[in-house]
Amino acid sequence: MPTCLDYARFLSKAAARRQPSAIREATQLFSRSPPSTISFASGSPNTSLFPFKQATITLIDGTNIELDPSAMSKALQYLPTPGLADLLEWLKKLQNYYHSPDDFKRYDLCITNGSMEGLSKVFELILNPGDPILVDSPCYSGSLDFLRGFGADIISIETDSNGMNVNHLNETLTNWATSKSLPKVLYTIPNGSNPTGASMNLARKQAIYEIAKKYNLLIIEDDPYFFLQFTKPDPSFLSMDIDGRVIRLDSMSKVLSAGMRLGFVTAPVPLWKKIVYHQQVTSMHASSLSQMVALKLFEKWNLSEFDEHTKRISKFYENQKNLMVNAINKYLKDMITFNEPTAGMFIWLKINGIDDTRKLIYEKALGQEVLLLPGSAFFVDQSKSYPFVRVSYSLCTPEQIETGMARFGKVLQEELKH
User: Fold this and answer.
1) Of 38, 64, 218, 240, which is the most exposed, with the fewest CB atoms less than 10 Å away?
2) Calpha distance 148→276 (Å, rounded)
3) Neighbouring C-beta atoms of residue 9, cutoff 10 Å
4) Distance spanning both ends of the chain, measured CA to CA
5) What is the predicted pLDDT for the residue at 103?
6) Residue 188: which H helix or E strand, with range?
7) What is the tens place of the pLDDT at every residue in 378-405?
8) What is the pLDDT at residue 257?
9) Which residue spans traverse the membrane (predicted)?
10) Could you please report the per-residue DSSP string of 19-53?
11) What CATH code is assigned to 307-417?
């Protein structure tokens, strides 16, 4: 039988105090009312005064999607905070298609302005300043920057080519000081991790989930590179969640458009409600226009066509990865150590014989017109020296990959002579 979690235990003080916004709740009620309902409650502007009437958007295959005057009117107006109802239904079908959670009725979805907005709200849902959170090390710099500013106690867990290290995680929790409150939450990017490119296999996820059960942790599954996997995806944390302890973040930035700022949070209903209450009083809802454009595209496609689209994307990034790996092996050879990724946009290089890569990157490499990111950006303590570099292969042409790695190879050769 599934465990019945006490979600009150996981809420931050701010989240526990959050109540629904009366105005936003009225918007949601009106959206579900019969068309004949007359509302004097709304403070929404009159869309007939807006200068936009309709739009035609041409897709990459030459076909079009249409926003007729009716769709455009909806796209220009306030929405219920969780999102456009028809788009939410489509995304729920997508979650079932890819993740088939144990009991989807225990979860709900909220569309956000990109997954980063959703992630920040999830952090604030669970953490009070000073609370511990278990994270990958190295970890996505955007998450670290938020957690530092928020005042969280960031507990770094070592990673390897399969992501978060189970032994180090277990050891950290087993030896936790009795005078300190145990962490309530674990945060990880399970596929194509930024910055390491590491992906968790099924056995690793199962082991981490068992640890989460043992210590009653929530798992924040931040998965923006899910559709950029080069082999058949292993089951997600959401798909194996029998307790309702997983909060999953998805992004359309890598598959539809980064600028549309469309992400979505899947969370157990008691936690989902608190996320919605928070969004009601901040951004109110994700862009109505972006949501309508996505809906019209998804109405044109079925799930299998969306799946084919994402497979073309993953194939492109796999080809880019292969070009980068070949260039690294050709020009960097024995000067570096790395693991070849099976998803995502990044390769994590360890520079042999160099303790700190900051000066190497920001002065010497940039002086030769090639830019990478030093590894220090992805660790909790940025004052220390780290021999790592993050390489991204997402944007560069094959010629740029070849030329850039040749330039970086010369920089390394010169540096290692001294």
Assistant:
1) 38
2) 24
3) 10
4) 63
5) 66
6) strand 185-188
7) 999 988 999 999 999 999 999 999 999 9
8) 96
9) none
10) ---HHHHHHHHHHTS-TT---S------GGGSS--
11) 3.90.1150.10
Q: How crowded is residue 122: how many other Cβ atoms within 10 Å of its Cβ?
A: 26
Q: Which two tokens stand for residue 337?
A: 């150590």
Q: How far is CA 60 from CA 27, 228, 243, 302, 320, in A?
A: 35, 19, 42, 17, 20
62 Cβ contact partners less than 8 Å away, ≥ 6 residues apart: none
Tokens 């995304």 correspond to 91
- Report the alpha-carbon distance of residue 164 to residue 220 in Å, rounded: 13
3-state secondary structure of 187: strand
**What is the CB-side half-sphere exposure of residue 59 using CA atoms within 13 A?**
14
Domain extent listing, the chain: 79-300, 307-417
Q: Which is nearest to 171 in space by CA: 161, 156, 154?
A: 156
Q: Tell me the two tokens of residue 2.
A: 């599934």
- Write down the architecture of domain 79-300 according to CATH: 3-Layer(aba) Sandwich (3.40)
Residues 6+ apart with CB under 8 A from 90: 295, 298, 299
Query: What pLDDT score does 39 carry?
Result: 80
Quick one: which H or E segment has residue 110? strand 107-113
Q: How confident is the model at residue 3 (pLDDT cuts 50, 70, 90)?
A: low
Question: Among residues of the chain, what percentage have pLDDT more than 90?
Answer: 89
Question: What span, in angstroms and rounded, lies between the C-alpha atoms of 279 and 113?
Answer: 10
